[in-house]
Amino acid sequence: MNEIISVIFIVLSNTLVFGQTISESSEVMTKKSTLELMNQLKVPAVGIGIIEDGLLKEVKVHGELVAGKPAPYNTIFETASLSKLVVTMLTLTLVTNKDWDLDDPLAQYWVDPDVKNDPFHKKLTTRHVLTHQTGFDNWRWNNEQKKLVFNFEPGTDYKYSGEGFEYLGKALENKFKMNLHRLCDSLLFRNYDMTDSRFYWDNDEIESRYAVGHSKEGIPKKIRKKKEVSGYYFLSTIKDYSMFGINIMNKTTISEEVFSDMVRPQTKLDKDESFGLGWDILHDITNGEYAMIYSGSNWGVRTFIMLLPYDKSGLVVFTNGDNGFDIIEKIVVSHYGSLGKEIVQKW
Question: What pTM was computed for the model?
Answer without folding.
Answer: 0.90
